[in-house]
Amino acid sequence: MKIDLTNKVAVVTGATGELGRVVTRTLAGCGARVAIHYHQAADIAAALHQELPGSCVVQADVTKPDAIYRMRDEIHQQLGVPDIIVNNAVIQYEWTHVLQQSVEDYRSQFESCVLHNVLMAQAFVPGMIHKGWGRVIAFNTECAMQNVANQSAYVSGKRGMDGVLRVLAREVGEHGITVNQVAPGWTVSETRPATGRPDSYLNAVPLKRWGTEQDIANAVAFLASDLASFITGVFLPVCGGNVMPTI
Amino acid sequence: MNQKVAIITGAARGIGFGIATCLARDGFQIVIADMDGAAAQAAADQFGGLGVACDVTQRAEVETLVQKTVAKLGRIDVLVNNAGICPFVDIMKMSEAMFKKTIDVNLNGAFHCTQLVAKEMIKRGDGGRIIFITSLAANVTSAMQGDYAASKAGMHMLMKSFAIALGPKGITCNAIAPGMILTDMTKFHWEEPENAAFIKERVPASRIGTPEDIGNAVALLVSDTASYINGVGLIVDGGHQAVCA
Description:
The structure holds two protein chains of two kinds.
Chain A: E1 9-12, H1 18-29, E2 33-38, H2 42-51, E3 56-59, H3 65-78, E4 84-87, H4 103-131, E5 134-139, H5 143-146, H6 152-172, E6 177-184, E7 187-188, H7 199-204, E8 211-212, H8 213-224, E9 235-238
Parallel strand pairs in A: 1-2, 1-4, 2-3, 4-5, 5-6, 6-9, 7-8
Helix pairs in contact in A: 1-8, 3-4, 4-6
Chain B: E1 5-9, H1 14-25, E2 29-34, H2 37-45, E3 50-53, H3 59-73, E4 78-81, H4 96-124, E5 128-133, H5 146-166, E6 171-178, H6 187-190, H7 193-202, H8 211-221, E7 233-236, H9 240-244
Parallel strand pairs in B: 1-2, 1-4, 2-3, 4-5, 5-6, 6-7
Helix pairs in contact in B: 1-8, 3-4, 4-5
């Protein structure tokens, strides 16, 4: 299927991570001009910018309102008002039991999952309302449905953002703005091969293969397009059937 | 013979026809299966496709559908289980015969079609895509939709079972749950002012859906780009469930 994002401006947070890079390239490949957000990896952002004509690079701590608004203004100046935001950035931390996990880890997940999505909406959705068209796409995770030991901080952050985004979908739909989540499974890439991972995971995936970042980015591109204009408020797993939610 | 082939049941009109339109746009050879054989062929003619009379409750007719498709087009890559009925009768006043018929068409029909088409896909060994058109009613119902809701919830679980069984064969199974969709059959209802107002009030997208909205979602899930999406129920309702769930 042909996905056309010509004349659209997109923002991808955490665009320098492995998934972020593939999403950024995919949206650009569909014709969008992409604002490449990074937090610390300036060199990777610069390389991606070189690779993608029409893109720009912006730096921000996505948990800080002032930084988000500064980033928004820079994007407005360089690319115009964004039509699409892809909230991908998340803070990494060491997973452990609830009884050992630090309060700071819970705070980091609240800030990078819940608050990140709130701030991105507050900064960019008004411009979408003005245009009468917009796409808010955020990454959730299959982990949010699995409740596996050691994942409490991550899962609580992701479940929290789920609530924010479903409410947002209801609040902004009348303006032609859709709000959706893509929930990846465990993916592999060149730098993160499957070597050493437990067989039990793959055995449970009906398709019997690992997902790739491209699998995930394809779903994002579809949801960003006009083809998905009546899809909003959904949680779309892309995990080969490892989790199968009730509708 | 290299062009991919999609069978859509109940596709002579309405949502099914919208799905056929989108898949034809994306390059599929279209097979329209419908109770009304003449209407099926008339619809298929619009895409240069094949129309087949088929009552999905009759396993022998589904077998014939598979055989005719393979004989004329050589392969089956996609099945869309779209055929369905919704009598809209109060569950306390519904006859046993009516209840059984709804289950037979919506749920048993999807079972027959999926099992028989999947056997053909497995035989060919090149994977496939199977889509179940369910409904928001699988999750949110009313006294007037007891039979329909039960059949659609059943379809959703049937889809998951097939997704697990067929995944290792490279065949993905997913469901699409439409919300309120404007078709020739529902047009009179949604054009009533109070019903149009209901859409504005309850659907965040502030509009009723179209058969092409559903067709585009099907087009995604049957495409190569969605090869890792399996066992999923994709709601296409303009956000309505977010309001009513």
